[in-house]
Amino acid sequence: MKTTLLFVITAVAALAETHPLTLRQAVEMALKQSPDLMLARLDEQKAQYAIRIAKDPFVPKVYAGSGDAKTWGYPSSIEGAAPAIIQTKTDMALFNRPKSFELARVRERARGAGITLQEKTDDVAFQTASLFLDAQQLAHTAQSLQLEVQSLERVSEAVKVRVEEGRELPLENKRIAVDLARARQRADGFHSDLNYAESSLAVVLGYAADDRVQPLDDEHSLAETPASEQAARELALKNSLQVRRLESELQAKGFEAREYRTARWPMVDLVAQYELFDLNIYKNLFPHIQRNNGQVGVAVTIPIIGGSAVKGQLSQAETDIIELRTQMNQTRNHIELETQKSYQDLQKSEAAREVAKLDLDYAREQVSVLLAQLDEGRVPRQKVDDARFNEQEKWIAFYDSQHAVEKARLNVLHQTGTLLAALR
Fold first, then answer.
1. Which domains does the chain have, with CATH numbers?
2. pTM (2 decimals)?
C-alpha cells in the first residue's frame, strides 16, 4: 500500500507544471485563456446572435410545399388557402414600429455586452496582477525568513558551544530554541501561503489547479499614476466602464419604452403568394379558373383594443429608467470616492515605504558597525547575531511596504481605467 501511494503521489506531482512568468506575461496569458473571459465572450456572442433574431420580421421569408387530399363537393380552404399542387408564399414587415424599437433595443444590449466584456477584461487583468504581486511578495518574504532560520541555526550552534564552555547559562539554549522554532513555524506558514498563491494564480490564468505560476521579477514597473487626486478622479469618471454600461442599459430601456408606446401603431406587412392548381378540381365550379395564380400586396393591421399588458409593461420600463438614472448617480459618486481613497492610500503607502527604507538602512549600517567592533573584540558575537536577525526583520518589513505601494498603485490604475495600458 505504501508503495502504491508513493507511486500515485509521484505520478500526480509529475503531471503538475510550474510556469515561470513575468507580470506582463501573466496578464497576457490571462487575457487569452481566462475561463471568466471565455464566458464573457460567449455572452457577447449570444447578444450578437440576438440581433439576427430581432431582424427576422424585416427579412423576407419564403415557404413552399405540396400535398395531396381527396375532395368531396366544394374545394374548401385548407390552412387559409385553396387546395393546390404547389404553394409558395412569403411575408416581411414593412412598417412595424414596435419591432423596429425591439431591434434597436437588442442592438444596444449587444453593445452593452461588449462593454461588459471590456469590464470583465479589466477585472481579470486586475485580479491577475494582484495575485501576482501577492505571490511575489510572499516569495521574497519566504526567502528572507529562510535566511533568518539559517542565521538562528548558526546562533543556536554558537550558543551551545558557549554553554558547554560555561560562558553562557543553559537557559540561553532554551531561549534560542524557542526563537528558532518560532522562525521555522513562520517560514513554513509563508511557504504554504506561497504555494496557495501560485496555485490560485495558475487557476486564474486557465491552468490546472495542480499547476503553479512562479512570479519572475520584471525590470519594468507599473506606469506612473495621475499627478493629482483631482486628475485621478476625472480620469476615473471619463474611463469608467461601469458608467458606460449603465448608459447603455439606460439607452436600451429607452428603446423598450418606445416599443411599448408604439404598440397601437398600424403595422404594414408585405405579403405574396403563388399557387399551382389542379384544374380537374375546379373546372366544373369555376369555368374561368387558371392553372397559375399569384397575389402580391400589403397587409395593414390596426390594433384596436390592446389590453392592459402594454400599459403595465410601459410603466415598468419607465420605472426601470428612473432606477437606472439613480444608479448612475450613485455609481459616479462611488467611483469618485473610491478613486480618492485609493489615491490617498497610495500616498500613505509610499510614505510608509520611505520609513521602512530608512529603518532598513539603519539596521544594515548597524550590522556593519558591529562587525567591525567584533573584529576588534569590542562586542560579543551574540550582539552581532541579534543585529543580523533584526536586519532580516527590517527586510521583511521593507518588502511588505514595497508590496503595499505596488498594490495601491495597481488599485489607482484600475480605478482610472488605465491598468491594461500600463501592463502592455
1. 19-423 (1.20.1600.10)
2. 0.78
